[in-house]
Amino acid sequence: WRAYLSTQGANAVNARDRIGKGPWFNVKGQSIARDLEHLKLMWLEEPVPPENLRALAKVAARVNIPVATGEHEYTKYGFKELISRGGADIVQPDVGRVGGVTEWMK
Q1: Which stretches does DSSP call E strand in the chain?
Q2: Lower CB count within 10 Å: N or C terminus of the chain?
Q3: Alpha carbon distance, N-terminus to C-terminus of the chain
Q4: SS3 84
């Protein structure tokens, strides 16, 4: 994967496509994420299932790449819990799912 990233002009999309779209953040995933840190990626998007707030918080605490999630959260209460648990550095709400711009702004 290192050769692939270096030839593709490493970015968040290529890294995610190459590593896999899914819950890859295990012991091997932690090592991969640390190896990716020098690439200064903008974020890791949902490296574990988004409903697993505990795992998201672990990832955010152990890796020096911002963790992004939120497209699968629907309420301000869910976002409050996600943020208070430290599960995301970047919150990505889907305005269509959260009840529109007014609810999103709350």
Answers
A1: 44-45, 67-69, 90-91
A2: C
A3: 41
A4: helix
